[in-house]
Write a structure and sequence with these properties.
This protein has 750 residues and is of the alpha/beta class. The chain contains 26 helices and 30 strands. It is globular, with a radius of gyration of 25 Å. Bound molecules: ligand MGD (2 copies), iron/sulfur cluster and molybdenum atom.
Length: 750
Amino acid sequence: MSLPDTANAITAVTSDADTTRTAYRTCPFCEACCGLELKIAGTKVISIRGNAHDVFSHGYICPKGAALKDLHEDPDRLRTPMIKRDGRFEAATWDEAFAEIEARLLPIRKQYGNDAVATVIGNPGAHKSGLLLYFAKLARALGTRNLYSASTLDQMPKQLSSGYLYGGFYSIPVPDIERTDLLVVLGANPMVSNGSLWTVPDFRGKAKALRARGGKLVVIDPRQTETAQVADAHHFIRPGSDVFLLLGVTHALFAEQRVKPGRLQEHLQGLQQVEQAVTEFSPERVAARCGMAADTIWQLARELSEAPRAALYGRIGTCTQEFGTLASWLVDVINILTGNLDREGGMLFPKAAAFAANTFGKPGSGRGIITGRRKSRVSGAPEVLGELPMGCLAEEIQTPGEGKVRALISVAGNPVLSSPNGARLASAFDELDFMLSFDIYINETTRHADVILPGPSPLQDVHFDLAFQQFAYRNFTRISEPILPMDEGQHNEVQSILRLIALLQERDLATLDDELFADEVRKSAGPYADAIIAGSAGLHGMERYIDFGLRTGPYGDRYGMQADGLNLEKVKQAVNGIDLGPLQPRIPELLRTPSGKIELAEPVLLADLARAAAALDQPAPELTLIGRRQVRSSNSWMHNLPILAKGPYRCTALLHPQDAARYGVAAGQTVELHNRHGSIQVLLELDDGMMPGVVSVPHGWGHDLPGSQLQVAGERPGVNVNVLLDENLRDPLSGNSVLSGVAVEIRPVP
Ligand SMILES: Nc1nc2c(c(=O)[nH]1)N[C@H]1C(S)=C(S)[C@@H](COP(=O)(O)OP(=O)(O)OC[C@H]3O[C@@H](n4cnc5c(=O)[nH]c(N)nc54)[C@H](O)[C@@H]3O)O[C@H]1N2
Ligand SMILES: Nc1nc2c(c(=O)[nH]1)N[C@H]1C(S)=C(S)[C@@H](COP(=O)(O)OP(=O)(O)OC[C@H]3O[C@@H](n4cnc5c(=O)[nH]c(N)nc54)[C@H](O)[C@@H]3O)O[C@H]1N2
Ligand code: SF4
Ligand SMILES: [Mo]
């Protein structure tokens, strides 16, 4: 990380200082949800900085936050719908775009059925509340089984393991960083990512405060990351072996009688089965596979059990691997066994103000989760959370037969760069009869579309963090109102989705939103539904749902029954956000398992341990590939913003000098990384912070594909590392792709 945190606030001079106004909004670029303060003159953004008075982020901003200005002004950002005619995109009116959709998409559904239309939604979907909420309605209207998303390139293993343990896919605990004594970070780099499944702005400041009060930060990662550099200790781990490390730690806890779940003891089920399941995985047995000393594993177990309060946090490095669900499960098991789950200073469950999935339903027990209600047509991969694995999408398009995918709706996603084997996806997209993209760029994915419907700039849209308030280090809420007016004739994504639903279901667009809202309220609010619908009069679109979510949420005004509770108006007034206090213990209230207990020993997980045991003695590849997130990127899509694109070339491979000598490659050279899936040529940098035997290349690059219209990104395109990944390699339980730890070979390019 090269820049100090606030150095990037843009400051420009305005001749019209008198007309400058101040506006506030949440940064939409990562999970940290920083509160920003913008100076606006007319319709021009003058400056963006962290809002020092924000109750949640306290003025923090990273370089991406300031880039909102560049996004808003980016000439490549689409302002009107695009229709492809004779292979070229032409600007079109909204009416023309919808006429094209009607003429081309509807007949496909009619002839081949609902499943012939697939959808895929990407990461920015979670950062635009209108997209996230209304996409769910679109998916329902389509009635297709072919739903795909970036979740199976990301966090599905954690959602699944949480589902098994606590009965809810969104019941995910986060570190109580402000009160813990020991934070162990496994397969995450929050100094760069700013946290994930953990909304934690200014990780750097919080880590510093932790250490200043005598706490300890430990990082376990195949690279000495930016987070490792601010930690007390860093241990290398061989990519893909977290499950074995965690089994070793669990074994050690039982072996040394360190299992002390404390208050949770009475809420646990399956402790003995876990003990039995880990007997064969002693630290000595797993150490070589992990590339760690057995002593380090014993020591880690001791530290976690002896620290007054400790938090073991695992993230994407632990998910994007063959045993992702097992690893995600064991992280929680260890927190539970050491008495650190659901206690102050340990791992706690947030309680969000609205849309808090972990508050829905009757407290204390429930139906638990169900997966595999259907299987993918070609590979038979089970559905999880209503979705099929991203890795299956290409084959569903390319395999003939009943149920073949013939049309695709992509929403804020760039799977050609973000998914394994994007080249296959690209050729699959070419085989589609019709593709519609909701996106703001013509990029590596949307160049395949027949119609593109752009949304407005985030500054022109209302936003509320449906997803990330549910993973916050402290309970808080905040809404972002539009700061700038919409361009003339522009539609926001809610309007576009509603219009598409109206087309699909032959419904009246004028009343559709009201009807959808009423349906939703009737489903969830039973006898209060009519009063709520009446109480929502005058509101529409996202604001109506946000008001409903807030008022019926855990801090809500319950439509007047709780006078001091929250509603839309109150949250709007609080431009600095509303602090809802530190996280609190929530078990047993949080549980939704059939037993009303934490179900530690789900049979599916125990059975999967046999697969892990069989893999334990597999020989290690000589060289494995890992990724690397970078402060000035967000997956594939921020490389077109000048303020972020400048600076040193970033799409490089990092390798330990010892390995470089071994393979006869040198710093500054272009090397070839290859395996049986593909090959890339990439500039090499040497880094003695790399684990020997591991090479790191960032993802999301490769902006040199024909047909994209990304002027700035195209100047330094980088290479797409995902050509080295196998779309068929997945964690079979969650369907999550394996993105890390695959074998590669390296050689100099002559
Ligand atoms: N090798 C490797 N691959 C990875 C990962 C890894 O660690 N290693 N990480 C994976 C992870 S965690 C994720 S989440 C995925 C991300 O995968 P994707 O979500 O597919 O990738 P993004 O680059 O985030 O795609 C963003 C898309 O959204 C569009 N967009 C941006 N803002 C808006 C908007 O306001 N409205 C609309 N409609 N569109 C918008 C952009 O133009 C772009 O097309 O990548 C995965 N791929
Ligand atoms: N600046 C920036 N911020 C981002 C993003 C971005 O692209 N850029 N992307 C956003 C998204 S979509 C997500 S999901 C989050 C992800 O947030 P994080 O999970 O914090 O993501 P990474 O920085 O990729 O950290 C993963 C770490 O795992 C390590 N690792 C790789 N393989 C293994 C393994 O097998 N075991 C272990 N223990 N470690 C391993 C990597 O070296 C890396 O340090 O970040 C979000 N924030
Ligand atoms: S840390 Fe994330 S939310 Fe905060 S300014 Fe940076 S990109 Fe935006
Ligand atoms: Mo992600």
